[in-house]
Write a structure and sequence with these properties.
The chain is of the alpha+beta class. Helices cover 29% and strands 45% of the residues. It folds into two domains: 65 residues, Translation Initiation Factor IF3 (2-Layer Sandwich); 109 residues, Alpha-Beta Plaits (2-Layer Sandwich). α2 crosses α4. One of its GO terms (biological process) is DNA damage response. It holds the Pfam family SIMPL.
C-alpha cells in the first residue's frame, strides 16, 4: 500500500551584526604598449602597498583576486560616418582585497590614506560575517520550525495525523553573508572620508528546506 505523504516547504530567517570589513580595490589603466602596461600595473600595486603598510597591512595581506592585460579598443565614426574599431593600447586591471575587523575608525583611516594614493584606486567596502556556521545553523533551525508549524496547521485543517519525517531536502547553496555599503573612487573618498562613520545594519538572510511527512491516517470526526 502506497504511503500517503505531505510535503511542506519551510522558510527560515536569521540576522547578525557584521564582524569584519573587506575593501576591494581596482587598479586599471591603458598604455601604448604591453611593456608599459606591465610597468604601470607593477608601479600602481607598489604604490598601494606603500600606502597600506603603515596601517598594518604587510604585502602578504594585500591579496590579488584578479589580474589581466588585454588589448583595448573603442568604436567611433570615421570621416565618412562609418563605425570603425580603433586600437587604444593595452588595458591592465589588478583587483585587490584587504580584510580586517569591524572598526569604523580604522575604516575611515584606510579610506583617507587611499584618497592620497598616487595609484588612484577605485574601491568598494563590504561588511561581512566571518562566522558563517552560526548563521547557517540559525537559518536551518528556523526553516525546520517553520515547516513543522505549517505541517501542523495543514494536518489539522485536513483532518489527518502526521507520522514520521520521510525526507528533508536542502540545496546547500551558499548563503550570502556580506553587504556592500560603500563604493567610490579615491578622489571621492578624499572629500568625504573625514565625515565617514558607517554603521551597517545587521546582515539578514533567508533560506528554505523541504520536509516530507508520512500521513498516518484520517482522523475520525
Amino acid at each position: 500500500m502506497e504511503t500517503s505523504k505531505m510535503t511542506v516547504k519551510g522558510k527560515g530567517f536569521a540576522s547578525a551584526p557584521p564582524d569584519a570589513i573587506a575593501i576591494s580595490l581596482q587598479l586599471e589603466g591603458i598604455k601604448d604598449t604591453y611593456e608599459l602596461a606591465m610597468q604601470h600595473a607593477a608601479l600602481a600595486l607598489e604604490q598601494v602597498r606603500e600606502t597600506l603598510l603603515p596601517l598594518g597591512f604587510p604585502k602578504k595581506e594585500i591579496r590579488s583576486t584578479h589580474f589581466s592585460i588585454d588589448s583595448a579598443y573603442e568604436h567611433r565614426n570615421d570621416f565618412r560616418g562609418e563605425s570603425k574599431r580603433y586600437f587604444l593600447g593595452y588595458r591592465y586591471r589588478n583587483d585587490l582585497k584587504i580584510t580586517f575587523g569591524n572598526d569604523s575608525k580604522r575604516l575611515g583611516e584606510i579610506l583617507l590614506a587611499l584618497s592620497s594614493c598616487e595609484a588612484d584606486p577605485e574601491f568598494s567596502v563590504y561588511f561581512y560575517l566571518k562566522d558563517r556556521q552560526a548563521v547557517e545553523q540559525a537559518l536551518l533551525e528556523d526553516a525546520v520550525r517553520d515547516a513543522k508549524e505549517k505541517a501542523r496547521i495543514l494536518a489539522a485543517a485536513s483532518g489527518v495525523l502526521l507520522g514520521k519525517i520521510l525526507a528533508v531536502d536542502y540545496d546547500w547553496g551558499e548563503i550570502e553573508v556580506r553587504s556592500r555599503v560603500y563604493a567610490a573612487s579615491s578622489k571621492m573618498a578624499y572629500e568625504s572620508a573625514p565625515m565617514i562613520d558607517l554603521e551597517p545594519e545587521d546582515i539578514s538572510n533567508s533560506d528554505t528546506v523541504t520536509v516530507v511527512w508520512e500521513i498516518l491516517n484520517t482522523q475520525k470526526g
